[in-house]
């Protein structure tokens, strides 16, 4: 039996107003997750609304005409649902995990928040103080601080370079009416994706979404585009002096946007490079050289840009060595083919992780929402696994040569001393 036949299938229905409803039904599961995604976020914010998407994410839990903030929390609690939300550069995602039998009731609360939240003035002022504390927390947490700084630096001059939280100045100045205007201009039907994963019927969710989200304004938000000829700010390094025991750094290389033809080869590449204890970074940086406790690689992919990012924390006097070694491991892919044994093990790690993730409906509801947005339709797990299985060692090497050969990454660091420079 092929992978596509043995894994859950996904379905998508587009409502008359443009809302997409996607589902991955997994019979037999006790739990399910449901989410509502707004495909407009930080990258679309004008200067006077910096941080508005994230601020509104907080405020959607603070009351509608029929539910107060306490009632929203109490209703989720009374039915045993666990609700949350997050904001990224390109999306705001509201979701909840519950028993499959109460997903309709759970979705009713989420939909009321999404469509009808009215951002009460008193709640705006209370939550303003909370967001300002979150900004300070990110400044005081070195790993979060350097991640944010890397993102701002790598994507400088691009709409993706805007900070998700905004700044203390922008959050302190934005008024309730401006937040409401921004919400009404961006929470539109064609930018909305409803996703559900677990033991829930697709057609029933379509009917409920049609009823619950029918009042959502139609249309699509205006998306900020990158300037013609924009390039990521690689070949530069920046250090932020702080009296820390370690020097933490991110280094990054440009990648093609999400949905690119190399994405399955990149998944195999990233698995071998920096995912898990068997990765080349873990073995070389940690096990052989004792340079770091934590080291890994990751990919950040967006609609029109992406990056391969490497993170490590090391001592100040060995930070340059760590940067050089990490860069050397990337370049190694350009010089030699990975062994068939390593390739097979990486594929099996990916296959096992993705199949085991099917037991986590929260992970799945995010995945099908994300692939729907970035690829235009939800990607079945089986389809992606068959593409992974077909990747060859030659393809990984050729892709690495195409994307990374002669590329000097961006390096951003925080810690004592002068910090590392670019790799030698």
Automatic annotation (TrEMBL):
Q: Where is the Peptidase M16 C-terminal domain?
A: 174-349
List the Pfam families.
Answer: Peptidase_M16, Peptidase_M16_C
Q: Which InterPro entries match?
A: Metalloenz_LuxS/M16, MPP/UQCRC_Complex, Pept_M16_N, Peptidase_M16_C
Picking any one GO molecular function of the record gives:
metal ion binding
Query: Peptidase M16 N-terminal domain: from which residue to which, for each copy?
Result: 20-167
- PANTHER family linked: METALLOPROTEASE (PTHR11851), MITOCHONDRIAL-PROCESSING PEPTIDASE SUBUNIT ALPHA (PTHR11851:SF49)
Q: Which family does it belong to?
A: Belongs to the peptidase M16 family.
Q: Kindly provide the name given to this protein in its UniProt entry.
A: Zinc-dependent peptidase, M16 family
Instruction: Name its species.
Output: Citrifermentans bemidjiense (strain ATCC BAA-1014 / DSM 16622 / JCM 12645 / Bem)
